[in-house]
Amino acid sequence: MRKDAVLNRERLLLAARRLFADRGLDVPLEEVARAAGLSIGTLYNRFPTREALVEAVFADRVARVADLAEQAVATDDAWEGFVAFLTGVCELQAADLGYNDLAARTATAGDRGHGLMREILDRAQRAGDLRDDVTLTDLAFVIWGVAATVKATHAVSPGAWRRHLALSLDGLRAAAARPLPAPPLSVTQARAALREC
Fold first, then answer.
1. How many CA atoms lie within 13 A of 10 on its CB side?
2. Cα–Cα dist 67/169, whole Å
3. Which of 7, 20, 25, 185 has the maximum number of C-beta atoms within 10 A of its C-beta?
4. C-beta separation of 63 from 137 below 8 A
5. Which residues, 6+ apart, have CB-to-CB distance to 186 below 8 Å?
6. CATH homologous superfamily of domain 1-48?
7. Which residues pair with 130 in a beta bridge?
8. What confidence score (pLDDT) does residue 194 get?
9. pLDDT tens digits, residue range 111-143?
10. 37: alpha, beta or left, given left = phi > 0 and alpha = psi -120 to 50?
11. Average pLDDT over the chain, rounded to an integer
12. Is 39 helix (H, G, I), strand (E, B) or coil?
């Protein structure tokens, strides 16, 4: 890429990061281009779709979630690792409304993070701390629920999501387990539901 093309790309990413963090993912792309001091055509030349821009803006957050997962797996106490992972993901969501929207829509950690999340869950279940019937799709809905709390309360009580997460974590403990009234969603069902956000 030419030097000016690289510079334009960086300007667009910086503008998108700022606007997405403040207002979420639905900011019009024309505003992103205008905030970067560039035309909408330049934006589309660098990022042909909104998804391409979002992926570039949040690549570091997706990598950070995978890092959090690696740290959780390396934690001696499986439950502490599980809690630290979910708390870290939710802290990322609370700090950036754009990432919060992305987490709500995809509950993603990338390919690397997905396998690690499975390991975090398995470790906590084997240790007897996490309910045996909790699935990865259940965790996606915990993240989704916290995302809704972050969005609803960020202006009036930015830390309210911590209460929501604490209540969810207590419900995930093996000691609190009661039979669940419905089976877990399949991966296909969970993806379809998350697309509706």
1. 7
2. 21
3. 20
4. no
5. 137
6. Homeodomain-like (1.10.10.60)
7. 173
8. 67
9. 666 788 899 999 999 999 999 999 988 988 898
10. left
11. 90
12. coil
pLDDT digits (tens, 9 = 90+) for 8-41: 999 999 999 999 999 999 999 999 999 999 999 9
Domain ranges of the chain: 1-48, 60-195
State the residue for tokens 């802290």: 91
Distances (CA, A) of 28 to 25, 116, 145, 182: 9, 34, 25, 39
> Do residues 135 and 184 lie in contact, with contact meaning Cβ atoms separated by under 8 Å?
yes
Record the tokens describing residue 91, joined without a space: 């802290």
Burial of 193 (0-12, 13-18, 19+ CB in 10 A): middle
- Smallest Cα–Cα separation from 140: which of 101, 179, 103, 170? 103
- Burial status of residue 135 (CB atoms within 10 A of its CB: 0-12, 13-18, 19 or more): middle
In the numeric block, the tokens 């974590």 are attached to 169
